[in-house]
Amino acid sequence: MHARLGDDLARLPGLLDEARAHAVRLLTGLDDRAVALTTGPPAPDPLPVTGIGAAGALEAFARRWEPGFAASAGPRYLGFVTGGATPASLAGDWLTGALDQNPTSGIDSSAPDLERETVAWLRELFGLPREHAGAFVSGATMSNFTGLAVAREWVGERRGVRVSEQGVAALGPVPVLSASPHSSVGKALSMLGLGRSALRRVDALPGREAVDPARLEEALESLGGEPAIVVANAGTVNTVDFDDLRAIAALRERYPFWLHVDAAFGAFALLSPDHAHLLDGLGEADSVCVDLHKWLNVPYDSAVQFTRRRDLQVRVFANSAAYLGPLSDDLDRVDLVHLTPENSRRLRALPAWFTLAAYGREGHAEIVRRDIALAGLLGERVAALPGYRLLAPVRLNVVCFTPEGSPERTGELVSAIIESGEAFLTPTVYGGVPALRAAFSNWRTTEVDVERVVKVLERLAP
Ligand SMILES: *Cc1c(COP(=O)(O)O)cnc(C)c1O
Question: Which cofactor does it need (predicted)?
């Protein structure tokens, strides 16, 4: 054994303790750390030849790289839609690495069954019917990709083409209808060979991001009975608007389409009694995307995808080889390798299992309700601050606002907020107006954090 490896093996417990103590220092110092940084990378180091051992690597990382890392696990990182990591999910994540399971196939371990249990818990959490089978993927982009891949196979079924065998060229163009899709939908369509231009924008309701169901019906009518894919949005990133899922699902009585719902973070509104109605009809979807590294607060990378047509999913993603074992006839027991783009992968379900086991439905509902209340609070405070204007009502957990009268100052403002070290917000453009977004999905955030953000905004007001 290489000398460094042998030394590290001999002192493994001490090494893990050092890493643990280091992590504890990081997490207890989150509040004092600059929330975001633009310092750039350190000077490059050459590839180590003999190596410096794990303790040396920890020291080098802490010295060279860590100072430039954001406090994205902390309570005032409000950019994009960013969750933290609950204590239990972090413990689960460490054990994921320690156990190093590959849940691809079930011939050696019950690890895939832990993933099945976790998916079943999530299905119940999101109120999905039993017909929805699910699997873990790395994020909502892969979840949208997987759902749309099954959708593509379904369109093929309607047209008498096996896309998974014959290829997308045999299928021809497929119309994909949506009002305010996430950018990852375009990326997924590009990867699927359907092309970004397959996306046909349907008008939203006036002043909203939610689709106008009457316009969607017109668009479907114009297809003359051709099968289509509808991407419904349950929580848009700018204003967290929700399509009327029931109204959309009802259109399937007259028009053939696959209903994919992107509920990346919006699905968690189900945990708030005042907002659960926004997801009415979710169970009627053919495929559903939910991110877990956002509002479930598990470490990256984690998301789940659900579909009612696992038979078509297996057709798309089957990876049959003698050494992997047989493809089960029982769709509930099919090996995970046949369900998603990946082959070997980590047991991504374990951190999610840990946090659900530790805090249950109620613990996670509390996080969601608190984040919604905090977004509401920031919305009220921003509306009352001179120099700012809300661009949309705070519907759930995102506050979208602009510097009053000088939207062109948005970029400067984002930089000044980063510079303050107090918070991180991301820029966007909504309704043609440059704007800022503050998204609440971290389990650590409290009213004290909102007041700190308000202070910064007040100081930087145009
Ligand atoms: C975040 C998000 C995505 C993409 O998620 P990743 O986890 O970054 O791949 C897709 N759709 C919506 C609505 C999102 O909020």
Answer: pyridoxal 5'-phosphate
261 and 193, same domain (yes or no):
yes
178 DSSP β-pair partners: 201
Q: What Cα–Cα distance (Å) separates residue 35 from each residue in 15, 146, 298?
A: 28, 33, 19
Residues 346 and 280 in one domain: yes
Q: Which residue has the tokens 């509902």?
A: 365
- Domain final position from 51, 71, 91: 71
Tokens of 56: 């040396």
Query: Total domain count for the chain?
Result: 2
Pocket of ligand 1 (CB under 6 A): 81, 139-141, 182, 184, 235, 237, 262, 264-265, 291, 303
Residue 251 lies in a domain: yes
Place of tokens 């749309």: 148
pLDDT tens readout for residues 39-91: 999 999 999 999 999 999 999 999 999 999 999 999 999 999 999 999 999 99
User: Residue 204 pairs with which residues in a beta bridge?
Assistant: 211
Residue 303 parent element (H or E): strand 303-307
For the segment 122-181, what is each residue's pLDDT rounded down to a tens digit?
999 999 999 999 999 999 999 999 999 999 999 999 999 999 999 999 999 999 999 999
Ligand 1 atom showing the smallest separation from residue 301 Cα:
7
Give this prediction's pTM: 0.98
Whether 64 and 207 share a structural domain: no
Domain that holds residue 245: 101-354
